Amino acid sequence: MSQQNNKLFRSQSRSRTKSRAVVANYEPTLDEQLSRLEEDIRRLKIEFDVFFNGAAKRPPYDTKGRVETIIKRLGDDRTLSYAQRYRYTTLASRYNTFRDLWRRTMQGREEGRDAVATARANAKEQAVAEFKRTNFVCDDAHKDVELVKNLYSALMEAKKVCGEPIEDFSFPRFHRLIASQADGLKERLGCKRVLFSIDVEGGHVSFKAKGDRA
Q: What order of strands is seen across the sheet that includes strand 204-212?
């Protein structure tokens, strides 16, 4: 090998070594860790579904243990920003709901409870756990008909998830109520827009409205 080629080889070797060192020393950001936690919870749910459907012999306790370790580590991290802490709390709450669901399902299987009734109850709890909060910012509820329709659809979905009645709650009636509520808030608070939020808390629909000064 010529001297020039030898120098090129050594240079490439050092470059590869540095690249490996960078990869080895890379520490994922908190946002990346939260995204990984969200994905791990999703995959763990799939693994439990596979087990409960009889396609796996053992419940995924190893994966469950790893997820709980990550939750504990992030929960002890005092460097989380307000937004990161909110996201962490949401994920931890979702996991706790799933964990309780899995525990009760396991207990029901051991006690020989009605599989159909158990599956129906579990499906409802799972849908509640997966429901994500939805926000709508409205400038003029009288004119923003499409936005109010989306708000109405999100509210109906939340009510269905929680098993709450939706009969006799038509869109025209909802539109009138929302427009009146928005007008009252804007007049009382002196704001130009209203923020509506739909969430599920404790198995029940939470529908809130507040002035938005942004």
A: 134-138, 193-201, 204-212
Q: Does residue 23 have a pLDDT over 50?
A: no
pLDDT given for residue 116 in this prediction: 53
The neighbour count for residue 212, using CB atoms within 10 Å, is 18
Give yes or no for residue 13 having a pLDDT over 60. no
Please check whether residue 196 lies inside any domain of the structure.
yes
Residue 200 · residue 131 · CB < 8 Å: yes
Measure the CA–CA gap between 159 and 123, rounded to whole angstroms.
15
Q: Which of 101, 130, 159 is the last residue of a domain?
A: 130
Are 119 and 41 contained in the same domain? yes
pLDDT digits (tens, 9 = 90+) for 171-191: 898 999 999 999 998 888 888
pLDDT band with cut points at 50, 70 and 90 for residue 213: low
Q: Side chain identity at 94, as an amino acid letter?
A: R
Q: In the chain, how many domains are there?
A: 2
Max Cα distance, the chain (Å): 87
As given in the structure block, the two tokens for residue 155 are 């509210």
Among 73, 99, 130, residue at a domain's last position: 130
116 within domain boundaries: yes
Q: Which domain holds residue 79?
A: 30-130
Whole-angstrom distance, CA of residue 43 vs CA of residue 65: 13
Residue range 192-199: average pLDDT?
Answer: 88
- Please indicate, yes or no, whether residues 62 and 74 belong to a single structural domain of this protein: yes
